[in-house]
Every structure is written in C-alpha cells, then in structure tokens.
Specification:
- The complex is a heterodimer of chains A (203) and B (185).
- With 203 residues, chain A is of the alpha+beta class.
- Chain A is built from five helices and ten strands, in the order ααββαββαβαβββββ.
- Chain A has a domain of 142 residues: tt1808, chain A (Alpha-Beta Complex), CATH 3.90.1570.
- In chain A, strand 1 and strand 2 form a beta hairpin.
- Chain A starts with 17 loop residues before the first helix and ends in a 6-residue tail after the last strand.
- The N terminus of chain A is likely disordered.
- The mean pLDDT of chain B is 91.
- Chain B has a single domain, classed as tt1808, chain A (Alpha-Beta Complex), CATH 3.90.1570.
- Chain B is an alpha+beta fold.
- Classes of the chains: A alpha+beta (203), B alpha+beta (185).
- Chains A and B meet through helix 2, strand 2 and helix 5 of A and helix 1, strand 2, helix 3, strand 7 and strand 8 of B.
C-alpha cells in the first residue's frame, strides 16, 4: 500500500441518523404474511406485523395469562361476550396487523366470519397486558393504535400495579394519558355509564 | 420515553432461500444481513459504471473465473449478503455442487453511493466478523477507496482511506497495483 491513513477520516459517521444505518429493511405487507402462513413459513398467531416488521410473540407467563382472563371477564361483563376479542388480529393499512391482548369491536365474532379481520375503524378500544413488554406497549404500541385512530387504549401495567388509559388519538399516538391505581375505577369511552374497577383488571 | 428496541423476527438463511425459491422474495432484489431482509436500492448509472470498472481492475490482478459479481455469499446461518464483487478461493465452477462458505471468500467489495453508511458500518462488521481478509468500499460521493484489513470479531482492525492519486496492492495479489482512479466512475 502506498499511502498511510489520511490525517482525519473524511467520512464522519456521526452525520448519519441511526435509521439510515438500516434504511433498506424489507417492509412486509399483510398479504405477504398471509402467503408465508399458507406456505408454513410463519406460524399463525405466533407473530404480529408492526410497521412492516414481523415481530414474534413471546411465550406468555402465567401472570400474563391470568391477567388476560381478568380483563376478558371485566370487558365481557360490560360489552358482551360476542364483542370482545382476545389476542386476535386487527388490520391497520397494508403493513400492520397487531394482536392486542383484548379488543372491543363493533360487530360480533360471527359477523367477522364474513367480513374478515376487523379494521381499526371498527375497534372501540384495545388493551395490552404488560409484564415484560411494558416499554414496548407504552411507546411503539401506543403510537400504532393512536395513529390508527382507535379511540381508547389501555395498558395494564402488572409490575407497577396500575392502569394507563390513553385517549384522544393523534398522528403519533394519544394526546391524553391517565395513570390509575388499584383504588380507582375507569369508565370506558365506549360504555361511559359503566365503571370498571382497576383492581379487577390486575392479578 | 424513548422507543423500545424492536424484537423483530430474525430470518435464517434456510427460510430466506426458501422464500426466494418460491418467489415470495424476488431474487437479486434482496439480501440477508444479520437475520434481516434488506431491499436493494435502485442504484443508477454511476453505480453500474463503478462496478464495471471495479471488475475490470480486479480481473487484471487475478483469475477472472474466481470472481463473483453481485451474487450471494452465505456467511452464517443468518447472513446471505450480495456484495458487488467477491473473489473466491476457487473458480466458480468448483461451487456448482456446494455453495462457498465464509472461508472461501478471499476478498469482497461494495460500490457505495446511497448505501455508504451501511457499507462502512453494518457490512464492515459482517464481512470482518466472517473472517474475510480484505474488504473494499468504493466511495462514490467522496471519491475515495476504503480498505479494511485484519478481520476480527467486530469488523476490521485496520482501515485505510485512499484518494484518487493513490494505488493499492490487494492482499490476494500483492505484486499487482490497482489505481484508485481506475475504480471510480
């Protein structure tokens, strides 16, 4: 080699934003994911599609499973069994198909046999039960559900024994966040006359 | 609160190849880097011209039959990148039966315009940690050649940046000089 290192690097990597480091990652669509499931490459119900990324679902701990059951009982008491979906997909655009732990929708499960996966516009509110996924649920998921226009989003925060209620969806998430403790109760926007005790949602 | 780290799916090379074979992924349009599927950007004429010059320059230093142009090199269970140019240990006919492994790759080069940042960071780490002895990045925007040598676990221990007045002796052909000016469009 005829030359030593130049005095200073000409390319300063700090000028690049982190997202530019991986600017070309493939963004999957819901149709492609469906194709991968049919081909047996992806296992149904074992992943979610978020911003075009395929996110495998973690194995659930008993605390998570039990809490989901509590949420299911509480929501079914208010909205009726037919309108409550547990760990079932909702469709947002072509690049998103999340599976909230619980969702209340405007049609019955039987109706969706014909209509297919409910779009975000038919979701009255979504719930995530958070144990190890708290940060993810409070940031990425909040952004996803809020920007899709879902009117209300709850995060059941197991580690801190509290409930985060997000309302007023905006482009980046939700404009309003209220954190409730086990002494409080919440009236869902979709059923304002009914009070749900936060304690009943937690293990 | 900052964004949570995305636990996105990491693909294996077997899954990746399968998806390419059945056409879910378009061959030649994607590559597998550290378990992620990257789409290739549309590169345009300066890039093609530089790849062509690079091929000509390297071919003058080695056996042409050992050069692989814009084809995949399987580096690990989760990486199957497609460098713009790769020099293999044997002629390509030798690999018709079984794919080359990382130890068969003697030299790789990327021609970078839009992909410069990824080529100097992620790709550098990828090729270095696979133990490829020498990696070049032909840097079109800055009209430079980045030479990476001494591979280690995190990339390369040695980086040399040359301008168009300089020349380089490839490790694979130490007696042959390549002029940096001959590589740039």
């Amino acid at each position: 080699m005829t030359s030593a290192l130049l005095d200073k690097p000409v390319v300063n990597l700090k000028q690049f934003e982190p997202e530019e480091l991986e600017p070309r990652r493939k963004q999957w669509t819901r149709d492609e994911c469906f194709q991968l499931m049919e081909l047996g490459i992806l296992e149904e119900a074992r992943f979610e599609l978020i911003h075009g990324d395929i996110i495998p679902k973690m194995t659930q701990h008993e605390r998570h499973i039990f809490t989901c059951k509590q949420v299911q009982k509480a929501l079914e008491a208010v909205f009726g069994e037919a309108y409550v979906r547990m760990a079932a997909p909702i469709a947002i655009g072509i690049h998103e198909e999340p599976e909230p732990d619980a969702a209340v929708v405007i049609r019955t499960g039987r109706e969706y046999l014909n209509f297919g996966t409910p779009p975000a516009s038919e979701v009255r509110f979504a719930v995530e039960v958070s144990d190890s996924t708290l940060r993810w649920d409070l940031t990425t998921k909040q952004g996803q559900y809020g920007s899709a226009g879902i009117p209300e989003y709850w995060v059941i925060d197991i580690p801190n024994n509290s409930l985060h209620v997000f309302r007023q969806p905006i482009e980046t998430g939700y404009a309003e966040e209220t954190i409730l403790s086990t002494d409080d109760e919440v009236r869902p926007l979709a059923a304002p006359d009914t009070a749900v005790r936060v304690a009943d949602l937690l293990p | 609160m900052t964004e949570a780290k995305i636990p996105r799916k990491r693909w294996t090379r077997t899954e990746y190849r399968h998806m390419t074979e059945i056409g879910v992924l378009e061959d030649g349009k994607v590559e597998l880097v550290n378990g992620e599927i990257w789409c290739k950007v549309d590169k345009g004429f300066p890039h093609s011209a530089a790849v062509s010059r690079l091929l000509k320059a390297i071919a003058s230093t080695c056996d042409y039959d050992r050069l692989q142009l814009r084809s995949s090199v399987p580096l690990s269970k989760v990486s199957d990148p497609e460098p713009d140019l790769a020099l293999l240990a044997h002629s390509l006919v030798y690999y018709l039966e079984s794919d080359p492994g990382p130890s068969d790759v003697v030299f790789v080069a990327e021609v970078s315009d839009l992909t410069l940042c990824a080529d100097l960071t992620i790709k550098c780490c990828l090729y270095g940690s696979a133990g490829i002895p020498e990696y070049w990045v032909v840097d079109i925007p800055n009209r430079l050649l980045h030479i990476f040598r001494s591979p280690n676990e995190t990339g390369y221990a040695e980086e040399t940046i040359l301008n168009t007045d300089e020349q380089v002796y490839p490790l694979a052909a130490p007696e042959k000089a390549v002029r940096v000016a001959d590589l740039l469009p």
